[in-house]
Amino acid sequence: MRYSRYLMPTTKETPSDAEVVSHRLMLRAGLLRKVASGIYNYMPAGLRVLRKVERILREEMDGAGALEVLMPAVVPSELWKESGRWNTYGKELLRFKDRAEREFCLGPTHEEVVTDLVRREVRSYRQLPLTLYQIQDKFRDEIRPRFGLMRGREFFMKDAYSFDADEEGAAESYRKMYDAYCRIFRRMGLDFRAVEADTGSIGGSSSHEFMVIADSGEDAIVSCASCSYGANVEKAECLPSEAPIPPVETGGAKEGKPRKVPTPGKRTIEEVSAFLAIDPATLIKTLLFETSVGDVAVLVSGAREVNEIKVKNHLGAEYVRLAGEERVREVTGAPSGFAGPVGLSVRTIADNSVRPIASGATGANEKDFHLVDVVPGRDFTPEAYADLRLVREGDPCPRCGGTLRFSRGIEVGHVFRLGTKYSEAMRAVYIDEGGRERVAVMGCYGIGVGRTAAAAIEQNHDDDGIVWPISIAPFEVAVIPVNVKQADVMAGAERVAADLDARGVEVFFDDREERPGIKFKDADLTGIPVRITLGEKNVAAGFGEIRDRKTGETLRIPLANLADAAFALVGKKKTECAP
């Protein structure tokens, strides 16, 4: 491909609304152009990147036995109402009516559509297992689209859905997709980690997120330094404390009841613990939540924080939100900061961090007062103890007891064990060997195509621009004749480019009449993995240069061997991206 006949408008300036590296570099390198908030034109080179990501996805999905289909982007509301998600998904679901006043939505995900397809076509256990996938344009009406392709409204996604006769078969389908995802991200040359995750609005019994490790990642990842355990912060498990927390030495615990003490204006954990001269771990923090199953008080050690996702999952609630000041006063009789479990007439659950507190302090449900010498099990009894807190760096690993550490990651893929949530609601059934009707067991598996490309840039860039892994680079080799008006320079460049092209190498030939510095800057900015440069002096001496974009290593090679050396370097880089 010749630069003079290609549309790749690079720029020096960084657009003011580009907040992250990938967004800035994709705009500067001429890969994207904004149409509206969260909606983009994919320029030729940007589309080449997406197509390479898609090719890898298709090869691995096909290799895992999945069958490609294409479902509609516009979905009738009836299907979403069957699953129960029409009213619960949120405003990200773009709803509209056609001219006949029928309701539709732009599909952000396609569980309902694929379940409808399968219930119409699959009748017998002999047709199972079945995994269908598509690569399709989707739309989510994000309230704050940002970060370019990292959080756009319109995006390309590979979504796959498995249907099995039983849970054992579903587990095998899940394993196949999990393994395929690992191969996919290895082939893209990405440093990634699969972590346990919450199932969120998709639902199901378990899931894993595939996270590309990057300092700019929005998500915190918890992993063990000693074993393969990994989870996002919402899902990361906390082990119960084995050691009891010593009692607060105030002298009143022996009397068998708590004492009320004045704490004027002291409402935060730091203020109360300092005022009472006690360890924050012995404070029993009481937080009131409004949930779909009613008001619930959640107790946690003052040294820890409540994990709302764990609370939601423990309660089986559709939503959980921290109660506002007015509601706190109605339920506890006091402003926020003075709530406590003693005498509180509301459903109460406690984190495991509360159980080992021998005696502690809590709010007194009265303004400017707290209780001390409070003993769990004597002065209050929660409905249940459970893991309800956020994990902290340095906590013990729930699998091996090692030390947990934090890093940042970008979610690029997610796999779910859906169970029968959708198939039961929508009656996707089959006839088993005994002639009985059974509900199919499902899984779903998604990868963001553009998001993966953006994550690759977040992980692979330097001060000069993008450093593409060769498997998803728009071109593999940039051939740069320094002076296109020099016949011998152009002739040498043409020969090398033609030789590499004949061997199947993707060559980008910079035939512009531009200064060498501009050509070199553009080659670095666009991240083409290998650069061949032919200058007047080198060509006159029978040499050319090869530069590795990633390492910066530059070799002076005889012209006769230039194509061979470049071909070998391309092959080496492809090997680095092998699954």
Helices and strands, with pairings:
Elements: H1 21-28, E1 32-36, E2 39-42, H2 44-63, E3 67-68, E4 74-76, H3 77-83, E5 95-97, E6 103-106, H4 111-121, E7 130-139, E8 154-164, H5 167-187, E9 192-197, E10 206-213, E11 219-224, E12 230-232, E13 259-262, H6 269-276, E14 284-291, E15 294-301, H7 308-315, E16 320-322, H8 325-332, E17 347-351, E18 360-363, E19 369-374, E20 385-386, E21 404-419, H9 421-425, E22 429-431, E23 437-439, E24 441-448, H10 449-459, E25 461-462, E26 465-466, E27 477-481, H11 487-502, E28 507-509, H12 516-526, E29 530-534, H13 536-540, E30 543-548, E31 554-558, H14 559-576
Helix pairs in contact: 1-10, 2-5, 2-10, 11-14
Model description:
- With 579 residues, this protein is of the alpha+beta class.
- A hairpin with a 2-residue loop joins strand 25 (461-462) and strand 26.
- Helix 2 (44-63) runs antiparallel to helix 5 (167-187), helix 2 packs across helix 10 (449-459) and helix 11 crosses helix 14.
- The mean pLDDT is 94.
Q: Which structural class fits the helix and strand makeup? A: alpha+beta
Oligomer: single chain
Note the overall shape: globular
Beta strands, count: 31
First-residue to last-residue Cα separation: 29 Å
Strand content: 25-35%
Q: Helicity level, as a percent range?
A: 25-40%
Low-confidence stretches: none
Give the count of helical stretches: 14
